[in-house]
Design brief:
The chain is mainly alpha-helical. It has helices at residues 3-15, 37-51, 68-85.
Length: 86
């Protein structure tokens, strides 16, 4: 399963009663009131647990959690950065 699909499934399960219809990787989540600032912290916890990454506090911003695409890009970037640290 792709990073995007995993995030979509999580959002649908937590905030949309399991209904991912109409939710794609470009939907502006906060603008459509799908998630709020508290939801961002829930997503951070999910991403850290599911993708085995650490999301630094400086990366927790509305810009990084605007869409599923931006979250997936953050996950991939943090994975790459984590590999270079090891």
């Amino acid at each position: 399963m792709s990073t995007q699909q995993s995030i979509i499934n999580y959002i649908a399960g937590v905030w949309l009663d399991g209904d991912a219809e109409g939710l794609d990787a470009q939907v502006p989540l906060a603008e459509l009131n799908i998630i709020d600032s508290a939801g961002i912290f829930d997503l951070v916890h999910y991403m850290q647990d599911d993708f085995r990454i650490t999301v630094p506090l400086r990366e927790i911003s509305p810009a990084n959690f605007r869409t599923v695409d931006t979250m997936a890009a953050l996950v991939e970037r943090l994975r790459r950065e984590g590999e270079t640290v090891r």
